[in-house]
Amino acid sequence: MSAFRHRGVRVVVDTTAEAEFDRQGYGVPDAVMERIADRLSAVTFSPEDRTVGAVRVRVIEGLDVIFLLTREGSKIVVTIGGVRPHQPGSATERLIRSVGLVGAVRSALGF
Q1: pLDDT digits (tens, 9 = 90+) for 19-63
Q2: How large is the C-alpha radius of gyration of the chain?
Q3: d(C-alpha 83, C-alpha 1), whole Å
Q4: What is the pLDDT of residues 81-95, one digit of tens each?
Q5: CA-to-CA distance for 66 and 83, rounded, in angstroms?
């Protein structure tokens, strides 16, 4: 008998309305969003992630990708809450704190 409840956990990627608004506003092509989703699926946790509470920020394809990781049954759900041109340093983290993106993303997820 194995101690594991789930093995081979699948990763799925969702976007919020805010992320889609960012994507359109910054002109991020669908192909780039697909590559971002592929990267987040392949490397869900990275030492390159910058965190603000539960929110993670990672530079992918020259963009700051803002996302949350949650669990839904036997799946890990990566929810992209925003994408914007990379801002060196902690400018994106300051933006997250100032505009309350954490609350917006959590409310979109039903938290």
Answers
A1: 999 999 999 999 999 999 999 999 999 999 988 878 899 999 999
A2: 14
A3: 44
A4: 999 998 776 556 666
A5: 6
The amino acid that residue 105 corresponds to is V
Cβ-in-10-Å burial (0-12, 13-18, 19+) of 1 comes to exposed
What is the C-alpha end-to-end distance of the chain, expressed in Å? Answer: 35
The DSSP result for 41-106, as a single string, is HH-SS-TT-EEETTEEEEEETTEEEEEEEEEETTEEEEEEEEEEE--TTTHHHHHHHHHTHHHHHH
What pLDDT was estimated at residue 23?
95
Distance (Å) of CA 42 to CA 10, 36, 51, 95: 10, 10, 19, 27
Tokens, residue 75: 């799946």
Of the listed ranges 3-7, 12-16, 42-46, 88-92, the one predicted with least confidence: 88-92
